[in-house]
Write a structure and sequence with these properties.
The chain is α/β, with parallel strands linked by helices. It contains 13 helices and 18 strands. It has 2 domains: 101 residues, Enolase-like, N-terminal domain (Enolase-like, domain 1); 263 residues, Alpha-Beta Barrel (TIM Barrel), CATH 3.20.20.120. Bound molecules: 2-keto-3-deoxygluconate (KDG) and magnesium ion.
Length: 402
């Protein structure tokens, strides 16, 4: 079998998605997600201008060799653009492999290690009362794990508090909007949210929280300590993690489980965090971290150090990435949890898929390959629209983390 052709599709069913389609000379095609929120066209160009010409004529079953060819062969390594492009190729090749062998991709990764993939949904409100109501709604939908975010008194806008409650989408059309931030106000308010949630829902529900990189280690340590009575499933992205060693400080002070890594791209972004057991969950995803070929190696390393997976699964990961994530999640032993922000009906129509949600779990379905398709005709009617994630400033105007 040989790769005959490949093409990049950019569409916008309410938000932008970049999809790679690879055709073989035997009539089989595979799909890969290459969406990088707010920087979509950079990955599209990387693929079309630099990667696709090198793929034509290759044997698509050589997933390892093609991965190494694109990673080592480029000379320029790592980074979100490169690793999202490699991921898209890798996903599409695993999709082809599964279709050619007439089996779901999870069977090629070791088979099912569990009956379903535990997921968490997003509940958020302008204030604690509204967030409690939103958590109740997610509980009613069957979720067993829920991430809770709330507006902070005195701040006009806060990360994770959206207009649309079910289909939260952080990117906005036009130029980047600006959020504001106060560490002092945040640290005083968040423990009150989780106190209210435990009071209302008891101890059984898994609760998660995302700090979105907005603290420094000693502040994160204080937050982790103050949340210990409410036993979170995890505290996510407590600090930025370019400095992996920073997590030593947090770890020294709190037993609240720590998750990080949705912006990581390669094992070298996480090797200290893993080998020093500074985190409990790694949030790296199949789309921004080099595809299944790289992620399964990272999971194998993490398994040795008691670190579990907790893949990013926001709406900016297309259903192609979600499908690939589910095949990964169901197969690795050290799976922890999968984020699941629902896509809109409009998005699901462009990407018909075999995965489904029931009673707090996602199931990848049994279709050969990844079990997801791309409607080219519909996609062509929904052209790219420039959109950005917000930027964040402290109350005195200082640029801060988003
Ligand atoms: O593209 C960035 C979003 O996916 C991110 O902000 C969402 O933090 C996020 C999360 O945990 O889903
Ligand atoms: Mg996050």
């Amino acid at each position: 079998m040989k790769i005959r052709d490949a093409k990049v599709f950019v569409c916008c069913p309410g938000r932008n998605f970049v999809t790679l389609k690879i055709w073989t000379d035997q009539g089989i095609y595979g799909l890969g997600d290459a969406t990088l929120n707010g920087r979509e066209l950079a990955v599209a160009s990387y693929l079309s201008d630099h990667v696709i010409p090198c793929l034509i004529g290759r044997d698509p079953s050589q997933t390892e060799d093609i991965w190494q060819y694109l990673y080592r062969g480029a000379y320029w390594r790592r980074g979100p653009v490169t690793m999202s492009a490699i991921a898209a190729v890798d996903m599409a090749l695993w999709d082809i492999k599964g279709k050619a062998l007439n089996t779901p991709v999870y069977n090629l990764l070791g088979g099912k290690s569990r009956t379903g993939v535990l997921v968490y949904g997003h509940a958020n409100g302008q204030d604690i009362e509204q967030t409690v109501d939103e958590v109740a709604k997610y509980k009613e939908m069957g979720y067993l794990a829920i991430r809770a975010q709330t507006g902070i008194p005195g701040l006009p806008s806060t990360y994770g508090v959206a207009g649309d409650k079910l289909f939260y989408e952080p990117a906005e059309k036009g130029l980047p909007p600006e959020n504001s931030w106060s560490t002092e106000k945040y640290l005083l308010h968040v423990p009150k949210l989780f106190e209210a949630l435990r009071l209302k829902f008891g101890d059984d529900l898994h609760l998660l929280h995302d700090v979105h990189h907005r603290l420094i280690p000693i502040e994160a340590a204080r937050l982790g300590k103050s949340l210990e009575p409410h036993h979170l499933f995890w505290l996510e992205d407590a600090v930025t993690a370019e400095l992996q060693e920073g997590f030593r400080i947090i770890r020294k002070h709190t037993t609240t489980p720590l998750a990080v890594g949705e912006v990581f791209n390669a094992v070298w972004d996480a090797h200290i965090l893993i080998t020093e057991q500074l985190i409990d969950y790694l949030r790296m995803t199949v789309v921004h971290s080099g595809g299944l070929t790289h992620l399964k190696k990272i999971a194998a390393l993490a398994e040795i150090y008691h670190v579990r997976t907790g893949s990013h699964g926001a709406t900016d990961l297309s259903p192609v990435a979600m499908a690939a994530a589910l095949h990964f999640d169901i197969s690795v032993n050290n799976f922890g949890i999968q984020e699941y922000m629902r896509h809109t009906k409009e998005t699901d129509e462009v990407f018909p898929h075999a995965y489904s949600f029931a009673n707090g779990y996602l199931h990848p379905g049994d279709s050969p390959g990844l079990g997801v398709d791309y409607d080219e005709v519909l996609g062509a009617k929904l052209p790219y629209e420039r959109a950005y994630l917000p930027v964040n400033r402290k109350l005195d105007g200082t640029m801060f983390n988003w």
